[in-house]
Amino acid sequence: MTVDEFLDDARAELDRLEPEKALAAQRDGALIVDIRPHVNRAEEGEIPGALPIERIHLEWRLDPTGSHRVPEVRPDSRVIVVCNEGYASSLAARDLHRIGLPGATDLVGGFRAWRAAGLPVQPGGSPAIP
């Protein structure tokens, strides 16, 4: 299987959101999780209200039954994963399905599409939740 096929398989499991729909979902209570490295968040900014959880810690912090999860996450949580351009986030959201978050998806085009759409961005550099 090629990486493109791998990505296509992951995306087939997701109801991916365009930036405007992701903002509407956030306003309706969805949790946006920013998996970008600190350097990207510091240089480009962040989505207001997003939880910065780097990819290496994602499953541990979002496992709805795990002892290391963030308190905002429940099995019925709607989670929108954000990376730079929407590739790593698709794979991450698929993995979240596998650990018990069927409401996980990702942002089409990632943070850069959000910013290009003129949606709210704040200065970055928040430390990630370890």
Word description of this protein:
The chain has 130 residues and is an alpha/beta fold. Helix content is 38%, strand content 10%. A four-stranded parallel beta sheet has the order 2-1-3-4.
Q: Identify the quaternary structure here.
A: single chain
Query: Quick one: how many beta strands?
Result: 4
Shape: globular
Binned, the helix content reads 25-40%
Averaged pLDDT, please? Answer: 96
Distance between the termini: 33 Å
Radius of gyration: 13 Å
β content, as a range? 5-15%
Q: Low-confidence segments, ≥5 residues, pLDDT <50?
A: none
By DSSP (H or I, 4+ residues per run), the number of helices equals 6
Computed structural class: alpha/beta
Largest sheet: 4 strands, parallel
Taking strands numbered 1, 2, ... along the chain, how are they ordered across the largest sheet? 2-1-3-4
How are helices and strands ordered from N to C?
A: HHEHEHEHEH
Tags for this model:
globular; four-stranded parallel beta sheet; alpha/beta; 130 residues; 6 helices
Question: Would you spell out the secondary-structure blueprint of this structure?
Answer:
Layout: H1 3-12, H2 19-27, E1 31-34, H3 38-44, E2 51-52, H4 58-62, E3 79-82, H5 88-98, E4 104-106, H6 110-116
Parallel strand pairs: 1-2, 1-3, 3-4
